[in-house]
Design brief:
The chain is of the alpha/beta class and 337 residues long. Helices cover 46% and strands 15% of the residues. One of its GO terms (cellular component) is cytosol.
């Protein structure tokens, strides 16, 4: 099973935000040594729980300290930026790690409306241009001609070289699936974001409407799921408490750092919130390494995707690294020395 990582640089109670960023870089090295395929980092803004706001910078740091694993954005929220500038950034990243860069693109703001406006005062106009922006960005990053009559046809993105980033479209709705199909690009659905709602339909639409491209003659689909492996189910459920409470608080509009499991377990919950907590415990991909691997494999087969991506939140960083180690072992990965 092809398995990759998404990391979001989660804020943790009692620790500075800078440590979350450094932990992301350290985790990438750890996951490379375990044999994972890709390591992706996300983009969020004005979010007190998810402090990874500049994935391209984190990618550069990871590129400098790894040798094999693919490094990607999941994703760059394209409406905030000029496609040409994004192309330049990813040309530089490809120069640092030739042939190892994934350029994952998203249309969602990764923030609230006010923050999107602060990032780009023209942000409200950009989402409708997303397909054209993707088209132009791919041409620039691959050093290919822009469409005939394009006003910036003479502009080139440097540095140039023999390799180019692999473009992915990311999303949690039908829209991204259709854009990926239109351009013949790999597509990843954020299953963890919507608890799977709409995921099977999006993958079906993607495959049904796929238009082969020179880079990708066949569709290539992935799902990103939240998962946590531990030596026992009891221990996994204990550490899940932190993330489960964060989800419940998020639904109430309360965002903040991830609490320790002992603190999260003492939270005062109403009847509806207690029921939600139990549902999260039942549905979550948690347990021993083999148990979690089996759940991931079953979903992969049922939905019919080519690879899976895992995101894990824990208060204790050692527990998170252990989770990825147990999962890699259960999947039969060969450690990279």
């Amino acid at each position: 099973m092809r398995l990759s990582i998404l990391d979001q640089s989660i804020a943790v109670a009692g620790r500075p935000h800078a440590e979350s960023i450094r932990n992301t870089v350290a985790l990438a090295r750890h996951c490379e040594s375990l044999g994972y395929d890709r390591f992706w980092v996300s983009e969020h803004h004005n979010h007190p729980t998810i402090v990874g706001s500049a994935p391209e910078i984190v990618m550069a740091a990871i590129a400098a300290t790894t040798e094999r694993i693919r490094i990607g954005s999941a994703g760059i929220m394209l409406p905030h930026y000029s496609p040409f500038k994004v192309a330049e950034v990813f040309r530089v990243l490809d120069a640092l790690a030739p042939g190892r860069i994934d350029m994952g693109l998203g249309r969602a703001p990764g923030s609230d409306g006010r923050t999107a406006f602060a990032l780009n005062p023209a942000a409200n106009e950009r989402p409708e241009h997303f397909p054209a922006d993707v088209r132009d960005l791919m041409a620039w990053v691959r050093n290919e001609p822009l469409v005939q009559g394009h006003p910036f046809a003479a502009v080139k993105a440097y540095p140039q070289g023999p390799t180019a980033p692999e473009t992915w479209i990311l999303g949690s709705s039908d829209y991204g699936a259709q854009v990926a199909a239109l351009f013949g690009l790999p597509y990843c659905f954020a299953w963890f974001f919507s608890d799977g709602a709409g995921g099977e339909r999006a993958i079906e639409l993607y495959k049904k409407n796929y238009r082969p491209s020179a880079q990708h003659p066949e569709p290539h689909a992935a799902l990103c799921v939240w998962a946590l492996a531990a030596p026992s189910m009891e221990e996994a459920q204990y550490h899940l408490t932190s993330r489960a409470l964060s989800r419940i608080n998020r639904d109430k509009g309360l965002l903040g750092p991830l609490e320790a499991p002992d603190v999260a377990a003492k939270a005062v919950l109403g009847p509806h919130e207690k029921a939600k907590m139990e549902q999260l415990r039942r549905d979550a991909f948690v347990g021993t390494g083999p148990e979690v691997a089996a759940r991931i494999e079953e979903l992969k087969t049922r939905v019919g995707v080519d690879e899976m991506v895992v995101v894990t939140w824990t208060h204790d960083e050692a527990v998170r690294q252990q989770s990825y180690s147990l999962l890699a072992k259960a999947c039969g990965f060969a450690p990279v020395t």
